[in-house]
Amino acid sequence: MWRFVPIVLAKTTNPNQGHLTPAHQRAAAIAVVGLGYVGLPTAIGLASTGATVIGIDVLESRLDAIRAAQVDLVIDDADRLMPVLDNEQLQLTTDGWRASEAEVVLICVPTPVDRHQVPDLTALRGACASVVKHARPGQTIVLTSTSYVGTTRDLLVEPLTQRGLVVGSDVHVAFSPERIDPGNRTHLQASVPRVVGGVTAECAERAAAAVGLVASKVHTVSSPEAAELSKLYENTFRAVNIALANEMSDIAGTMNLDITEVIEAAATKPYGFMPFYPGAGVGGHCIPCDPHYLLWMLRANRVDAPLIETAMTRIAGRPSQVVSRALEGLLIGGTPVAQARIVVVGVSYKPNVEDCRESSALEIMQSLRDRGAVVAFTDSLVSSVLLHDGTTVVRTDPTCQQWDLAIVHTLHAEVDLSWLDDVTVVLDTTHRLSGAANRIVQ
């Protein structure tokens, strides 16, 4: 029988819920620019404190989805969404000028990379330009989107100065990187500390009061640049260690050892070790993108970062390794790839979310299709995906046909995997299934 092996994460709690008085919370108007995977939970959290929140997004379709509660949220935020909409604590609009009504403006737009892994600042530049255009004296403007060191000064401080507004006097500007982990109820927004770096001490104090409404505590650093680099360091740390975990998995495979057993043994050490787990690749809005903002900036300054470069190269190459292992699996089953029927189990980038941004499943599916295989997917949270060649693939019922190969990419909670017993070969890239003779691992 197939057995899902959960990875248990430690809980953290902190009773502190902010730094503003209840009266100030009720009076404050806060604009959140960008209502995606970071902005929407932020807006809900702020509105739930009693603040009036103006949620601004350029896409009316996104606002319609929010109004219909057809958005990907952890259950805690999903439960709070309709109440804050109904009582108008959260007001939705596409009108950028409404940021001028707020005392505090938080910018929470995506910062992806393009197909060449070059930072795409289109959304960020547009959002910052709009906020600067509508800025007024007395406002506090906080950038939360991950970007290169110097972004806050380049896109906010300098344009505001050109408008004749004195930063630190007329307006207050800071950087406070987001710390939201979609789908993770263990580390909810209210239990996670936030970092704040202001242009001046008063800028930092005002920004800390705002983000402190939705954070367990606030750690203030000396400048926006220090806060910007701290965020890049956080996610580069994860990227390097994931690359190491993948490499250790390959090493364990050559020795016929179970890498999960090895990691769990190492994790019994109470100091000096943090467990990271191998997988089919890295997706989402952070790890595949953020270190490239650092590398891009360093290249412009002729600074080398060979360790980070190597880690990101290895991460980018991981889906190709999975494809190679899938081809080996087909050989084990005696099926040519051009005739193979392959199903991918889970296509979102991580468990328990429907977010497919940068998901390695899409690259794996495309590569196998390019080789002539018939490739389908099953995912309880995702109904369809768009591949790189423009093809839309719709979710299938995996029990309705026989498969030559199943690639277990992402495991959502409470998913029935009993049908895998009938698949010729199962490639488990998660290393979290056990108990069947037809399983191979990556």
Task: Walk me through the structure.
The protein has 442 residues and is an alpha/beta fold. It has three domains: 22-222, NAD(P)-binding Rossmann-like Domain (Rossmann fold, 3-Layer(aba) Sandwich), CATH 3.40.50.720; 234-308, Orthogonal Bundle (N-(1-d-carboxylethyl)-l-norvaline Dehydrogenase, domain 2), CATH 1.10.1040.10; 318-441, NAD(P)-binding Rossmann-like Domain (Rossmann fold, 3-Layer(aba) Sandwich), CATH 3.40.50. 36% of the residues lie in helices and 15% in strands. The protein has twelve helices and 17 strands. It has helices at residues 22-27, 39-48, 60-67, 75-86, 122-134, 151-162, 201-211, 224-254, 259-266, 290-300, 306-333, 360-370, and strands spanning 3-4, 29-33, 52-56, 90-93, 104-107, 140-143, 172-175, 194-198, 218-221, 341-345, 374-378, 384-386, 392-394, 405-408, 425-428, 433-434, 439-441. The protein has an eight-stranded mixed sheet, sandwiched between helices. A five-stranded parallel sheet has the order 11-10-14-15-17, covered by helices on one side. Helix 2 (39-48) crosses helix 4 (75-86), helix 5 (122-134) packs parallel to helix 6 (151-162) and helix 11 (306-333) crosses helix 12. It is globular. The protein starts with a strand and ends with a strand. 44% of the residues are buried. Mean pLDDT is 91; it is low at 3-27.
